[in-house]
Amino acid sequence: MKSKKYEHLFFDLDRTLWDFDGNSKLTLMEIFSNRKLEEKLGVDFDQFHHFYMPYNLKLWELYKQGNIEKTHLSVERFAGTLRHFGLNDSELAAEISHDYITISPTKTKLFQDALEVLEELSKDYNLHIITNGFNEVQFVKIENSGLKPFFRKIITSEMIGIQKPNIEIFNFALNEANALLEGSIMIGDDQETDIMGAMKAGMDQVFVNFHHEDLKTKATYHIHQLKDLLSIF
């Protein structure tokens, strides 16, 4: 049975609507080729990517915890990868960082049915985004991938210096959207930042479990593909 209690649907962006991993890989492949990194590092792209991915995630965790700054994260993820393969070149790392921030938001791969589902939902609900990420990247992603027309408010962690799962970003988003807590719901793919964060803020949640992860907690709703939202709302 479809729920009529909600007026405001808050979406996560990366890995919920915008295919972060797919678009990131395409971006890194382009940079790897353009910067001739196979020649400079003596490894192929798969080896480069295999190290970069977990190293980048580790740095993001430090950033979320407030232990490193944005500027350090954006360059160190590449500087550390280059060092791992024997190249200590901070200038090249900074250039790659600039490449990544410039190229990645131009990639437009969304998860299956994203635009069709948003178009349908926007007829009856107010749609918003709450995203952890950098303003200069997130807004370009939203524009280029055709998402912008569907969303009334776009809240980034950088706007207020607070990341999900901190409840203050959810409170800020509710205030910005002029939304009541009981009439709002968070839709996201990350059990910690989206689901547990919203839960602590007192907001209902939809866990979009694309990869059939083991459940850490029970969300209000649990789906495996975006089109399943149409059976809820």
Number of helices: 10
Shape assignment: elongated
Let me know the CATH homologous superfamily of the largest domain. HAD superfamily/HAD-like
Content of β-strand: 5-15%
Radius of gyration: 19 Å
Order of helices and strands: EHHHHHHEHEHHEHEE
Number of strands: 6
Low-confidence stretches: none
Arithmetic mean of pLDDT: 95
Q: Strand count, sense and closure of the main sheet?
A: 6 strands, parallel
What is the annotated CATH architecture of the largest domain?
3-Layer(aba) Sandwich
In total, how many domains does the architecture comprise?
2
* Helix-strand makeup class: alpha/beta
What is the helix fraction of residues, given as a range?
A: 40-55%
Query: Looking across the biggest beta sheet, what order are the strands in?
Result: 3-2-1-4-5-6
